[in-house]
Amino acid sequence: MATKVRIGVTGPDHGGFTAWNFTRLALFVSEATAVRITPSHPVDVSKLDGLIIGGGSDIDPALYGARRHKRTVHIDHRRDKMEWALLEGALKKKIPVMGICRGMQMIDVFLGGTLIQNLDDLDLKFAHDTSPFPHKIVYIKPHTLLHKILRVSKCEVNSIHHQAVKTLGKGLQVSAEDENKIIQAIEHTHYAFLLGVQWHPEYMPQSAIQRRLFKALVDQAKRQRG
Q1: Which string of DSSP letters, residue by residue, matches the chain?
Q2: CA trace torsion 107, 82, 118, 142 (10° rounding)
Q3: Cβ(99)–Cβ(141) under 8 Å?
Q4: Beta-sheet pairing, 194-197 with 97-100
Q5: From 83, 155, 188, 200, the catalytic residue
Q6: Any catalytic annotation for residue 155?
Q7: Tens-digit pLDDT profile for residues 88-102
Q8: Which of 3, 117, 153, 177 has the fewest CB atoms within 10 Å around its CB?
Q9: Where are the domains of the chain?
């Protein structure tokens, strides 16, 4: 029997166990082995077949040339540094990468993009409600990798973020937006599998649509490993 592909999953040193356990379950169902990565327990990219940059604390605004907003909290400099190095290694190795919430934002910042530090500062037409349960609709752009994976033009997702992508990093395009036109997913236009979603698909194991994200990542890792 072939060895399962190994997918690294980043998180903080303290906390984050709920997201980790749900993500590990999603990868197990997709026939992959999840490898937890934290600042105190790093893992070399050479030992991975794929990478998930997980959700969590806000990214240091200095990484995208901005001053810290009063609502920008819980900055984890060690995690920022760790994930930056992991992305450098993963893209050099060309393994599939998916970002979740903070992870999507980190992909954008890594490639030169910027963030909205506080969505409540915006004059939004529709209220930005937050909940770990599905409660908002995102609209998937046609002819994108995300659309190919999810096979739907819109879907219901959860939303627990207070920041979002502002300007896109080099090589990225928008693959989903919400009703406020806030960016909800990004992907690279040339890299085989570099995708980020603003919601938390790991918290929706009941959704066959959301499980497709993890399955697609694992399938790509299998193809590339041969």
Answers
A1: -PPPEEEEEE--SSS-HHHHHHHHHHHHHTTEEEEEEBTTB---GGG-SEEEE---SPPPGGGGT-PPPTT-----HHHHHHHHHHHHHHHHHT--EEEETHHHHHHHHHTT-EEES-GGGS--SS----EEEEEEEEEEPTTSHHHHHH--SEEEEEE--S-EEEEPPTTEEEEEEETT--EEEEEESSSSSEEEESS-GGG-TT-HHHHHHHHHHHHHHHHHH-
A2: 20
A3: no
A4: parallel
A5: 200
A6: no
A7: 999 999 999 999 999
A8: 3
A9: 5-225
Fold of 5-225: Rossmann fold (3.40.50)
Total-model pTM: 0.96
Active-site annotation holds for 101:
yes
- Using 50, 70 and 90 to split pLDDT, how confident is the model at 126? confident
- Please tell me which residue in 31, 74, 101, 187 is annotated as part of the active site: 101
Return the pLDDT at 65: 97
User: What residues does 11 pair with on adjacent strands?
Assistant: none
CB-based contact 11:20 (threshold 8 Å): yes
Whether 202 is catalytic: yes
| The token pair that represents 207 in the structure block | 């959704």
